[in-house]
Amino acid sequence: WVGLVREGGSSDKVDAPRNLIFVISDGYGPASATYAREMGLFNASDEKPLLPLDKYLVGHARTFSASQVITDSAAGATAYSCNERTNNGFVGVRPDLSACGTLMEAAKRAGYTTGIVTNTRVTHATPASWSAHVSDRDEEQTIANEQVANVTYDLMFGGGEDFYGASQLGELEAKGFSVISTKAELPSATLPVVGIFAESHLSYELDRMHDPATTEPSLSEMVARALELLDQQDDPFFLFIESGRIDMAAHSNDPAAHYWEINQYMETIRILETFVEGRSDTAVVTTSDHSTGGISTGRRYDNNTYPEYIWFPDPILQVTNSMELLAEALSLGANLTETYYNVTGIDLNDYPRKKKKIEEYEGATGSMFHSLLAEPINAAALIGWTTVGHTGVDVNVYNFGYTIDALTGVMDNTFIGTTVRDLFQLGPYLDQVNKDYDGWFVPPPASTRSHGTNHQYGSHD
Questions:
Q1: pTM value > 0.90
Q2: Helix (H) or strand (E) holding 21
Q3: CA angle 103, 109, 115 (to 5 degrees)
Q4: CB 332: neighbour CB atoms within 10 A?
Q5: Average pLDDT over residues 416-435
Q6: Would the CA dihedral through 292, 298, 301, 302 be positive or negative?
Q7: Residue 81 to residues 33, 154, 292, Cα–Cα distance (Å)
C-alpha cells in the first residue's frame, strides 16, 4: 500500500518510510492537552491557541497493563517497545519473566542507526523499556549495566550520572563512544555518543529557563542535535524520544512545571515538524504511556457554594520554580513563607490551613510533599487534580511526516507497536532477537512497587 502524507510532510508518495521517530510524552493525557492549549491562549499575543500536535491527532490508545487496569510507565512503554502487554514494573519483560525483544533491538539488527533521547534518567522506566530487560524498574543500576553491556544504540542523551559512573562510562569509551556531559559539547558531538547531562533527571524546564548558569540542554536541543547526527548517516535511523518530566510534574500536582514541560514537548514537536517538512521518508509517531494526575481546569473549592465556571492562569504563569526545587530550598533551611512568596507570588498567610499542613511535613521530599506545596497555587488558579498517581484514561495518538493509515480510531497500545513493526518490516529481526532470548528469564522483582496483583483485564494479545 501507499501512504498519504499529512500537513508537515511531502506530497510525494513513497511505498514505505526510511526513518522512524517514536515519541512518548510520559503522563500526557487529553486533559493535559486541553490545559496546555488554554494556557497558551492566555500566554500568547494572538488568539490561535492550537498546539502544534492538534492537526496530527489520529486516534486514542488504551493503556491498561497485564496486571492492572491502570498501567505504570514500565508496562506502558514495554507495550510499545515489545508489542506485548506486561505487568506493572516490568521493563522489557513478559509477565512470565521472560525477556522480550524490543523494536530498537530489532532495528539495530536490521542495520538502523539508533538513538535514545530523554529528559529523565536514561535508566528510568520508559527509556529502559527499549534498551534493557528487568522485572523491577527500580533496579536502575542493573539497567545501566545492561545498557552498557548490550549496546543497542548509537546515541543516548539524558540524565542518570548516579548510575553511570566511571566504570560504565569507561566501558562505553572502550567500545568507541565519546562521552559528553554539558550542553556546550553538543555541537561537536559525533557518533557514537552518550551524553549524561545530570546526576538524576534533567531539571524541569521551568527551573532550567530561570537558571542562567545551567549547563543542561533542553529536550528540544538534544533532539535537534540527535537529528543532525542521525541524518548524516548512510543507514536509516530509529530515534526514540521521551518527554518524561510532564509525568513527574503531574505526580507533584504542580501546574506550572506541568505546563512548561508540555510547552517544551511542543517545542520538540516543532523541531520534528521542521525536520520532516518537504520529505516523506520519515514517520513520526507520538503518544503517551498513560495519563498522570487527572488534571481539571475548574474545581469546586468551596463546598457551600455552587462553583463558577472559571479558572485563572495568572497564579500559574507567575510561578518561577517547580515545587521540587522549592522543596529542596526548604530542606536546606529556607524560610517557608518568604521563599514561597518569592517563588509563587502567593502569601501563604492567605491559606492558613494549607500553610499549617505544609509546616507539618516541612523537610519531607517526594511528590506527596510537592503536591502539598502546589495546593495554594491550584486553589488560586481553580485547578483540580484527582490523584498524585496515574489514571486509566485513553491517551492521544498523533502521526505526521509519513502517514501511517492503520493508526486511526481507538486502538490498543500494543497495536501501535505492531503497526510500526510491520511498516518497517522489522518482524523477522524481532523474531531473531526473541529467538536469541529464548530461555532468558530474569529474576522476579525484589520489591512490589507499582507491580500490583495480576488482575486480568481485557485482551492480552
A1: yes
A2: strand 19-25
A3: 60
A4: 7
A5: 98
A6: negative
A7: 24, 17, 20
Q: Is the confidence at residue 456, as pLDDT, over 50?
A: no
Between the alpha carbon of residue 288 and those of residues 27, 31, 243, 316, the distances in Å are 6, 13, 9, 24
Specify burial of residue 317 (Cβ count, 10 A radius: 0-12, 13-18, 19+).
Answer: middle
> Distance between CA 316 and CA 260 in Å, rounded?
10
113: helix, coil or strand?
strand
Cβ contacts of 281 within 8 Å, gap of 6 or more = 14, 17, 18, 19, 402
Query: 325-350 pLDDT, tens per residue?
Result: 999 999 999 999 999 999 999 999 99
pLDDT tier at 455, thresholds 50, 70, 90? very low
Contact between residue 373 and residue 339 where contact means Cβ atoms under 8 Å apart: no
Locate 130 and state its grid cell: 527499549
Q: What is the dihedral angle through the alpha carbons of 237, 59, 273, 103, rounded to the nearest 10 degrees?
A: -10
| Contacts of residue 456, Cβ cutoff 8 Å, sequence gap at least 6 | 66
Contact 263, 28 (CB under 8 A): no
Question: Which three three-digit cell numbers place residue 250?
Answer: 503531574
Q: Are 178 and 225 in contact (CB under 8 A)?
A: no
The pLDDT value recorded for residue 243 is 98
Distance, in Å, from the CA atom of 414 to the CA atom of 149, rounded to the nearest integer, reads 28
73 is catalytic: yes
In the set 73, 135, 291, 322, the catalytic residue is: 73
CA distances, 264 to each of 48, 135, 267, 268 (Å): 18, 31, 5, 6
Q: Which residue has cell 516543532?
A: 270
